[in-house]
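Lab meeting prep.
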Amino acid sequence: MNSIKKACILDLEELADLFDLYRQFYGYPSNLISGIEFLKQRIEQNESEIFIALDKEKIVGFVQLYPLFSSTRMKKLWLLNDLFVVPQHRGKGFSKELIEASKQLCRATNACQLTLETSKMNKIGNKLYPKTGFVLDKENNYYAWVNL
């Protein structure tokens, strides 16, 4: 039976293993120690909301959301920044449940929007997101300045 819960500090080491796999999926080198510290800071400082998907008490996926604000709408919005399910558990509904938990957070905090960005090469995500109610924004330009 699938279950979703908010991550806490007790989940840190197991969550960090998946976070490391997630980063590797996007081409970053493994760095488990830094990943543990990064997630620990997010949890302890309440800088993000992390939900985990459990299969028989084992963490098999997670979603991490960051709060943002819309000045024009004068409301909070959430950035769904990270979503990952281990390959052997894909296709079992975990991603959809994690997205639903994200939508519930949006509703509970009276946020005006849940937004995300993914690589054009992420074929799984680009099929999943429209199926879960996300609409691809073709009207706005996305710009980034990277501080190297």
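Slide two material, second protein:
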Amino acid sequence: MATIFTRIVNGEIPCHKVAETADYLAFLDIRPQAKGHTLCIPKREVDYIFDLEDEALAGLLIFAKKVAKALRQAVPCKRIGIAVIGIEVPHAHVHLIPLNAVSDIAFKEPLDIPANEMAELAAKIAALV
């Protein structure tokens, strides 16, 4: 079954379109965290952003960069934040959120992880890269 984003791409569900190319689409989030909160998606449905082919992932980020620059001009803010969550809709996407403070993206309190655990985790990840 097609995701809600694929249905938007196919014109089955309306959206507030911001930008579009042959491969990517940007539209306003219907549950915005800030005025101008925009989603950028590849038109081809892929569940997990890191399952995109390198070229498609690079293309998505370059597309998002163009959208972010326009968004920053349209919505006064200090920065455009980018978030990749990918749990709420099984279709790769990035959130572009106008920010004036760190709290504009809902980061929770940081974890207190001992330095030895941090070193061990870093080494484990590095060995897998």
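Talking points for slide two:
The mean pLDDT is 92.
The chain is about 30% helix and 20% strand.
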